[in-house]
Amino acid sequence: MLPEENGTEEMNMFELKLSDFLLSDTVRALHASINEEWDSLQLSACQTAAGRALWKHIIHDPVADILAGEKYLRNLHEKIKKDKLSNAREISGVILAVRTLWFDSNIESALNSFNCGENQVVLLGAGMDARTYRLSCLKESNVFEVDFPKLLQMKATLLQAAAGFNNENQKLTLKAKSVTRVAADIRDDDWLEKLQKSGFIPGRKTVWVLEGILYYLSHIDAVQVLKTIAADCTLTHTVLLADFMNKSSTTLSHSTFHFYSDWPDHLLPTLGFSDVKVSQIGDPDAHFGLMHDPLNLFNRLRNLPRSIQTHPDDGTPCCRLYLVKASGFPQQTIP
Length: 335
Ligand SMILES: C[S@@+](CC[C@H](N)C(=O)[O-])C[C@H]1O[C@@H](n2cnc3c(N)ncnc32)[C@H](O)[C@@H]1O
What we know:
It comes from Aquilegia coerulea (Rocky mountain columbine). The protein is α/β, with parallel strands linked by helices. The protein has two domains: 16-85, no CATH class; 94-328, Vaccinia Virus protein VP39 (Rossmann fold).
């Protein structure tokens, strides 16, 4: 396989260069407290940021490395190096790179579909996502980041430190119109109320971004969150962007993953969404030039009907990640 088939041509596989700022006492101390105090759910935010930092030739995230921290960068770098040396068909992190780019491009097209006017973008389980510093398509958007209080507090501290760091080459500039961090647990009944108290306006065109979050919730909680968003759809044009695991994917870690849907295109209309479009990693709108090898895991899966749970060639579970876009519009009342 050619190196560029995995999109790794610009990635120096054998040396991990960490910035002086990342290695400074301040940032190291902050990440030491993260590693001591956070649970695995919250730490998944740093792992995600590490993926974006190490696929930086594809995802231009100015703060992903600072938000990820040294430990997760080193761990993932080791995995990528091993994959590279063994000529693996899938390089660690590629799924995250594709997923990130899919959300980026769908956020942009959803905002374009609103045809100007005031709009909002809500990142549920925002973690260490730095889209507000990455995406210029957010320049007219009020962005709300919802996550646990201690995660959002730490994110703000790290970003403040990064902004204060004297690096003229990499000035940290907010690209969104505004960003508001909303501390809430989306399993609780009051998260929407907290969002509204923070300035979210029901009835204003909204893109809801649920990236890497639904499968950490129980079935009941995930469906309730989706229903709450669907209720907002009755007021205005709304776009939901979310990734769903199928049932087999949750077997990768029974203790971590709970909610799944093999058929989000059937589920979402029952909750109040319309125009549901389901993509899989490797599909024409979800490969971004990173999935050329027809024999890689994702392309092999795409060629099998979605109802098949076990791969006929080797008996392995068909672990799929669905990238889903759905819309909601107010009901047209007939005069
Ligand atoms: C895998 S990370 C993904 C973060 C972010 N969406 C991204 O793509 O970078 C999952 C995030 O969901 C957050 N999360 C999980 N359960 C949550 C809950 N019940 N309420 C609020 N946030 C939650 C975690 O704290 C973590 O930041």
